[in-house]
């Protein structure tokens, strides 16, 4: 058995649970750019990499009514309609400023994320979609998915907004559920979205005829047991959403749970048994596995933007805190720290057309290859990576792929690689092995700095510091 195979086998035996890899390099590796990059230059270079240029469009709306304890996304608490209106105006201005970038590609998906975008009123969405009509008139003919994130209470409180969104072209809504056990919902800081609200939201979405309702459950909440997990899984399967995701709870240092040190969450190897239970129940109910965390009803569920991004289709992120993924640079424009003052700054700069990439990670050919291997081993033709020099760099990657095949996580079909069912289960253990030393070091520095800030803050507040830490990339692999 090779060294990599021994490492994989050992981590699987230990039940290591790394954070879920949904991007590479992660935001933790971004550093201030030198000022030479513009969005136009990054996307011009990106265009030269693709024979059939395509694009995913992501629009970020940062506003929430409350902050979930485990959330480390770019969100701010606000229910100020005037702020919503000013923000929508700025986002539409930024959308028009990127018209040439969008028009140079075939638009594949549109995703409005957050935050809680469903807090916006229907007139705000009509303005956004109207601006998209101006920029890319045939977008409804080319996109495969138009999605929005929502909370159960926002659906229940404003069902007319959902109905209007359906008329505008909405095909999928991601409704955060996390659990169907009331105590666990409260522990997560989601007391406003009790079990009855969740069920009512799902009922409304089904009644309105939304093609794809996407929901999620989280393994590892404080107080969660095998029995309560089974309750959530069984009940959600009966509710029959088109898409279900199951995540291991990760409390990163920039989430409230970690900052306060008041929350102890599970990171037990036994959580993989909960994964096994969920997979069995969902497949018994007619779901197929789309990824390591996601199940869908064949032909109508799924998360198309994520799948395409994993396959290498670039993503243009607009709005405060949004990330863009090109073939040469992953970047954020404007603010990188969530606060209302930074939202105001974004509105000012977007209106004045002065936004530009401020922080990011420059990708060379090796990092492009690593990105695809980290994200896309579910089903990847390695020949697609030859134009980035895969053959010359194969010695960096083939031993890891061989080890994955040896340990039963991966199968080879010519030059195509595909994860096995066991590979889906332990995908993140394998993914971390493709991280470059540079990315590992940047990730470690970022999280060690946050941990130290949290320790100092908790010491100052007199709060216990004994909270479970988050593994850095190297520790997890």
UniProtKB/TrEMBL annotation:
Domain of life: Bacteria
UniProt cross-references to Gene3D superfamilies, sorted A to Z: 3.30.750.200
An example Gene Ontology molecular-function term: 4 iron, 4 sulfur cluster binding
Listed InterPro entries: Coproporphyrinogen-III_oxidase (IPR034505), Elp3/MiaA/NifB-like_rSAM (IPR006638), rSAM (IPR007197), rSAM_sf (IPR058240)
Pfam families documented for this protein: Radical_SAM
GO biological process, one term: porphyrin-containing compound biosynthetic process
GO cellular component: a single term: cytoplasm
Family matches, as SUPFAM superfamilies: Radical SAM enzymes (SSF102114)
Domain Radical SAM core: from-to ranges: 49-288
Name of protein: Heme chaperone HemW
């Amino acid at each position: 058995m090779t060294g990599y195979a021994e490492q994989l086998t050992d981590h699987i035996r230990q039940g290591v649970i790394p954070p879920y890899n949904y991007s590479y390099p992660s935001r933790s590796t971004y550093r201030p750019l030198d000022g030479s990059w513009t969005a136009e230059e990054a996307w011009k270079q990106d265009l030269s990499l693709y024979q059939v240029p395509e694009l995913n469009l992501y629009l970020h709306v940062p506003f929430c009514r409350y902050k979930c304890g485990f959330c480390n996304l770019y969100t701010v608490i606000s229910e100020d309609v005037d702020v919503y209106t000013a923000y929508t105006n700025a986002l539409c201005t930024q959308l028009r400023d990127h018209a040439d970038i969008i028009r140079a590609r075939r638009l594949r998906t549109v995703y409005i994320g957050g935050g809680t975008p469903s807090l916006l009123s229907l007139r705000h969405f009509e303005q956004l979609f109207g601006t998209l009509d101006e920029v890319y008139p045939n977008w409804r003919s080319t996109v495969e998915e138009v999605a929005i994130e929502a909370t159960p209470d926002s659906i229940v409180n404003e069902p007319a907004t959902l109905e209007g969104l359906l008329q505008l072209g909405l095909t999928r809504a991601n409704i955060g559920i996390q659990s169907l056990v009331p105590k666990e919902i409260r522990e997560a800081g989601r007391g406003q979205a009790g079990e009855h609200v969740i069920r009512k939201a799902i009922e409304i979405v089904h009644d309105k005829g939304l093609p794809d309702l996407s929901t999620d459950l989280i393994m590892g909440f404080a107080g969660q047991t095998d029995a309560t997990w089974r309750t959530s899984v069984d009940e959600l399967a009966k509710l029959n959403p088109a898409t279900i995701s199951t995540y291991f709870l990760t409390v990163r240092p920039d989430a409230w749970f970690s900052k306060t040190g008041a929350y102890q969450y599970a990171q037990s190897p036994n959580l993989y048994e909960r994964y096994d239970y969920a997979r069995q129940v969902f497949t018994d109910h007619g779901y197929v596995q789309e990824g390591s965390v996601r199940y869908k009803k064949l032909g109508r569920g799924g998360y198309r933007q994520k799948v395409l991004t994993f396959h290498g289709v670039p993503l243009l992120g607009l709005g405060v805190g949004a990330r863009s993924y090109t073939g040469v640079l992953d970047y954020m424009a404007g603010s990188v720290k969530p606060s209302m003052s930074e939202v105001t700054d974004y509105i000012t700069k977007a209106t004045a057309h002065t936004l530009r990439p401020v922080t990011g990670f420059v990708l060379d050919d090796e990092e492009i290859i690593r990105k695809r291997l980290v994200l896309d081993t579910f089903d990847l033709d390695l020949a697609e990576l030859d134009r980035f020099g895969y053959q010359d760099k194969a010695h960096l990657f083939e031993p890891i792929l061989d080890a994955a095949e040896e340990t039963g996580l991966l199968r080879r079909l010519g030059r195509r690689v595909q994860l096995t069912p066991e590979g889906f289960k332990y995908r993140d253990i394998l993914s971390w092995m493709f991280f470059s030393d540079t990315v590992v070091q940047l990730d470690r520095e970022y999280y060690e700095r946050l941990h130290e800030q949290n320790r100092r803050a908790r010491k100052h507040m007199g709060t216990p510091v004994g909270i479970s830490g988050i593994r850095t990339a190297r520790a997890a692999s």
